[in-house]
């Protein structure tokens, strides 16, 4: 039967923490020895305890350790793109780049949720009701265009003139950010027809 999983959290009790550290350190050194023996690879580790002792170096052979460190530094300087050393700053840079790539999609999704391009009630309308709605929308668009033209004439701006931001604020009325609503009257005699 396998031992129960130990929760990965900080051990508050100092004695327990030191005992766990020693046990796990011996375990990782044993695994490193096995890996070096079975796969014929060079392995070195620097183990720093939290009690400010001198760091322990595995493997105990100082020449082997120095050779491995020098080889690592040399390889890293020759071809840094081949030898990845993934530090905390690298993690944050990769995360930042990933988030910057996802940002436009998130903005588009937010805009689509905030300003839907389709209203669900339109699915339930008949063809006749949709045609009447379209003609009502065209009438509203025509009214808005006429209002814009009259405001341009009253403010002394030539029709069909492109306005800069300052002129636009003077010539155009304030816009209400509420969704478009069209009031449609129903015939009292026939509830299915729209006027």
How many beta-strand segments? 2
Mean pLDDT: 78
Q: How far is it from the N-terminal to the C-terminal residue, by CA?
A: 78 Å
Largest sheet: 2 strands, antiparallel
Structural class designation: mainly alpha
Based on CA inertia axes, which overall geometry fits?
A: elongated
Compute the CA-based radius of gyration. 36 Å
Question: Stretches where pLDDT falls below 50 for ≥5 residues?
Answer: 166-179
SSE order, as H and E?
Answer: HEEHHHH
Tally the helices: what do you get?
A: 5
Strand content: under 5%
Helical residues, percent:
40-55%
Widest β-sheet, arrangement of strands:
1-2
Fold blueprint:
Layout: H1 14-39, E1 45-47, E2 56-58, H2 62-78, H3 88-114, H4 127-154, H5 165-171
Antiparallel strand pairs: 1-2
List keywords for this structure.
protein dimerization activity, 3% strand, TF_MADSbox, transcription, 195 residues, 54% helix, mainly alpha, MADS-box/MEF2_TF, MADS-box domain-containing protein, elongated
Q: How would you explain this protein's 3D organization?
A:
It comes from Lactuca virosa. By secondary structure, this protein is mainly α. It is 54% helix and 3% strand. It has a two-stranded antiparallel ribbon. The protein is elongated. The termini are far apart. 0% of the residues are buried.
């Amino acid at each position: 039967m396998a031992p129960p999983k130990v929760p990965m959290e900080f051990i508050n009790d100092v004695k327990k923490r030191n005992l766990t550290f020693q046990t796990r350190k011996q375990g990782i050194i044993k695994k490193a020895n096995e890996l070096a023996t079975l796969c014929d690879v060079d392995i070195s580790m620097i183990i720093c305890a939290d009690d400010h002792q001198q760091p322990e170096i595995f493997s105990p052979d100082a020449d082997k350790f120095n050779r491995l460190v020098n080889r690592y530094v040399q390889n890293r300087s020759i071809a840094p793109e081949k030898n990845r050393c993934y530090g905390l700053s690298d993690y944050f840079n990769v995360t930042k780049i990933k988030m910057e790539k996802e940002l436009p999609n998130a903005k588009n999704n937010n805009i689509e949720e905030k300003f839907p391009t389709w209203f669900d009630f339109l699915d339930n309308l008949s063809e006749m009701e949709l045609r009447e709605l379209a003609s009502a929308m065209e009438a509203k668009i025509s009214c808005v265009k006429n209002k814009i033209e009259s405001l341009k004439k009253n403010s002394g701006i030539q029709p069909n003139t492109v306005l800069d931001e300052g002129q636009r604020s003077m010539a155009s009325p304030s816009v209400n950010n509420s969704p478009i609503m069209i009031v449609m009257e129903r015939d009292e005699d026939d509830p299915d027809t729209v006027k």
